[in-house]
Queue: 2 jobs
Job 1
Amino acid sequence: MSEMKELRDIFTEYMRLNYISALLGWDQQVNMMGYKNVAGRSEQIALITKLIHKRLVSEKTGKIIKKAEKLNDLNDIDAAMLREAKRAYDQEIKLPEELVVEIQKTAALAQQTWQKARKNNDFKSFIPLLEKTVELQREKAQKLETHPDLYSTLIDLYEPGATYDWIANIFNPIKPKLINFVKKLNSASNKPDDSILNKEYDPDKQYELSYEILNKLNYDFEQGRQDRSTHPFTTSLGSLDVRITTRTTEPFPACITGTIHECGHALYEMGIMKDLHDTILCTGTSMGIHESQSRMWENVVGRSKEFWMYWYPTFQKYFPENLKDYPMEEFHRAINYVHPSFIRVEADEVTYGLHIILRFEIEKDLIDGNIQVKDLPEIWNSNFEELLGIIPPNDTEGVLQDVHWGSGYIGYFPTYFLGNLYCAQIYNKALEKMPNLSDDYKKGEFSNLLNYLRENIHQYGSIYRANDLIQRVSGEDLNSAYFMEYLEKKYYPIYGL
Amino acid sequence: MSEMKELRDIFTEYMRLNYISALLGWDQQVNMMGYKNVAGRSEQIALITKLIHKRLVSEKTGKIIKKAEKLNDLNDIDAAMLREAKRAYDQEIKLPEELVVEIQKTAALAQQTWQKARKNNDFKSFIPLLEKTVELQREKAQKLETHPDLYSTLIDLYEPGATYDWIANIFNPIKPKLINFVKKLNSASNKPDDSILNKEYDPDKQYELSYEILNKLNYDFEQGRQDRSTHPFTTSLGSLDVRITTRTTEPFPACITGTIHECGHALYEMGIMKDLHDTILCTGTSMGIHESQSRMWENVVGRSKEFWMYWYPTFQKYFPENLKDYPMEEFHRAINYVHPSFIRVEADEVTYGLHIILRFEIEKDLIDGNIQVKDLPEIWNSNFEELLGIIPPNDTEGVLQDVHWGSGYIGYFPTYFLGNLYCAQIYNKALEKMPNLSDDYKKGEFSNLLNYLRENIHQYGSIYRANDLIQRVSGEDLNSAYFMEYLEKKYYPIYGL
């Protein structure tokens, strides 16, 4: 099995180069705010990217993979290692360098243009570069050819194994259910009042609190850090170095829920078994499963009544001017206020899925050439009304709101909602085993849930693809019924229904 | 001249890899304090080191250098670029890989052993690894063969162009002068009292103050940062990214003087002309010249009476409990108290040179095989008494105090004292041009000195070797008379002599 050893070594170097690249990115976002010149850093990142590419497409790598493919009786880890190695190799070797460079250049330009366009509510100025982006992504999908249809090939980049049809079969039936559910909540006579969240909360105190919560959630500060950045993110700079960032933006408590979200991502990466460290399997298996972990901690735990039964007195001590005489139950209802809104990243967990379904359907049509970039604002607004019952007042709060398309990420959006669905199904299983799990939260105790997730999800890293993993955990395929059940159980009491 | 273009490109990549390596090191020292596992980071650094080596020793690099050496009429920049490229190439190509690995391994072990030995005052336990280190450094010098004698070859690694003889000719005559000067100050009837510095000063306030001073000294926070670390240092992570670190250790005001010291290093790197950015010349030309800059800001400016005429009121506001009723003149005398002491890094600027001469002479004898490692404590103590009139009470405060030898840095020490000498000679020239320079400091104005240094030193990066540079600045070779003159002018008034 010397082939497997060689393969492992090549991809250990590949992982280390990726960790170095991640450090260059982390440092730029955390430590270089206000720097005069980031061109030098961009050159450094480009150099590392080139070295990663070179390492990957070497003749040696191709030969080893071919040899390893002839091996029989690989164990789960070796089989997965070969699968992921081949996947990484194919992605690099199938794409001509000119195409890769063109995609990078276009993304750099498109991002700048998008930023201005969003600021000035000027979709027209973004059209040429978005058209080019779509064309380049089509070309990329044609070269990769992972699936017969182009959009599935793009989806597969973020959710390995998933296809358009598979996702559509899940999203289509849940769509009307969500629409009706939102309508039902909206018709309730006693809706939550979230005005308490619009008061002023000292940003430094918010940050301090977020640190306290991270500790309680078992984020390990001996193999990670928390820092501030403009956009919160989680990044692994090593198998034992998983860092998160926090921002203190309005409305309250976005800083807290955002931190818990990133903590969920980090706990996943921190929980990967030692045998996988520094191998290509030492990372979450898909964006959807990753998102299931971040959302479980953010929404299922972090917005539960039991969580706030423990934390609210602390929050009252930090912000007596706002919360001293404000009842916990009302605060809990405020942070679970469901209502159609324009901006995806500010949406509640019920309407969120509809924001994603909108994008999923548009992306499919864009890639298939059924709709034109120039018609996007109209399509966006009309579909938005159909799904959420409101029409964005402008493109800034509509089709121009997300960074993804300008960066060339087409096929990424559906993984966010898949995350919610995976989350509900996994949590349902955890509850079967520990029916009184949420009693833990009242005591500020979160390790039983974490241990369950480590045992069933985290430790495996990328050994099992998302669909295998959910089968192993729950004994069935992804099933959106658990999500609807979760929503009903949670929101009917909050809305007095 | 396409050879020069190719050469420039190869070494731009080399510099970028070095910047990346510097980031890995900076991050480890600033952000990974208390991390469980730094092994992963060490592997990343080893990988980058390997890539740098590979880039450097490629056949292509050797060929280009040979071609470029045949070119005539190179301008100053191209000639220097070729010189430094060849120097870097030779250092990598002349050393067999086994030797490099052996040196690295030995240094890792020796450092650990040294730390324990110093802690336990147990020189014996350090002997075998120090012997091996000396042997490996001798072997390294034999392979490099930059100069006929081994010690000069080692010195040349840190102070390009300098030799043992050249330095000995400078150090030997100043040695008795320094000894006498210290004796003279010690015999004064009205010596400074430094007990005020042993009071408690809030570390956070010290850090805040150090930041305020950095701003006034024109450290550019748009192309650098200040952070905390266990040992203060300056590092370039890019031509426009020069970071410093600060620690708040006792005695006061070590945090402040240490920060000003690192600021001096940083201002040098920040002042290099744009044409040299991202080239192999974009760094200080030698350790001695670098140290001349850090010490000029730390000692000549930062311990001058005029500097404190401006800053003392601020310090009084920060630390009223200690300084409110304490006269500035006495404070200034306290921070310029000259007295023989055991620890080099805590020594005043007068006795400091004697600490260095001690090490310089011992290193020479060690490398030449004239003395044995096992006899070092005895030699250290007896020479120490000769130079400073006191005997270290133990090896922890004697021969075991420095990290350098255990890390394989033999030949580095003399550059520290050369820094003091270069500094005095350069500052003397600045005073010739601007006789009232120190009046600036009374007003918190430091840009005239900085502009002088930028024009005469900083902008050139590594174009001119130290001896050429000092000739260009002052019209003569390094001359220790300026340093003695500086000391007398400064210390006689302080000591009322």
Note: The domain at 148-497 of chain A is CATH 1.10.1370.30 (Neurolysin; domain 3).
Job 2
Amino acid sequence: MTELRKTVERFWAAAEARDWTAFAETLAEDVVYTLPQTRERIAGRERYVQFNREYPGDWHLRTERIVAEPGQVVTWAHFTVGLEEMYAITFFTGTEKITSITEFWPEPYEPPAGRDHLSERY
Amino acid sequence: MTELRKTVERFWAAAEARDWTAFAETLAEDVVYTLPQTRERIAGRERYVQFNREYPGDWHLRTERIVAEPGQVVTWAHFTVGLEEMYAITFFTGTEKITSITEFWPEPYEPPAGRDHLSERY
């Protein structure tokens, strides 16, 4: 198991537990968080912890899948906020601590016409 | 480098080249393609190759990031269709050939209010 994978597992466990001290310990001081969909960036551990601490809603998460190699980890996490369900796909880099986080929040959409001869809905 | 990573690199290169024979060779016969956002599933190599071959638009791709461990690979691919830009995040499993593909297409959205004291737009 890679070092960074263990750090990322602690990151998600601390987020779910709202243990912001343990959460901060997984992050490099100059960590950068990037959301390509909104083109937002949050620079620095303090701001990023605050962003998570202030995030509204009674959200809960579980990790569906983790793929790790030395220095890079990706997670697919399932979030619930009440009855609402969401996924986050998160790319982490770092060595022992996390130095960059790039996150995607894909939303449900209706399939385009013209492919129901190949696909099934589930 | 893992075996599956090499297969996934061939998969994307063949897609970009519209080389559907080489593309099919990367896939197990019973490959399953899943789109959680639309809850669509396409079962079997033949249908999945047809789905890609029929996909409309002059799309082009490059892989931004690959994370691989034995049996699991994730890619973040950047697509262009004319002036439109999109990302696909794709989770692959398999050994030598690809047996499952789960893909997300995150779309741009406006950031919620109340976090611009922490974030910057880029």
Note: Chain B has one domain: 3-104.
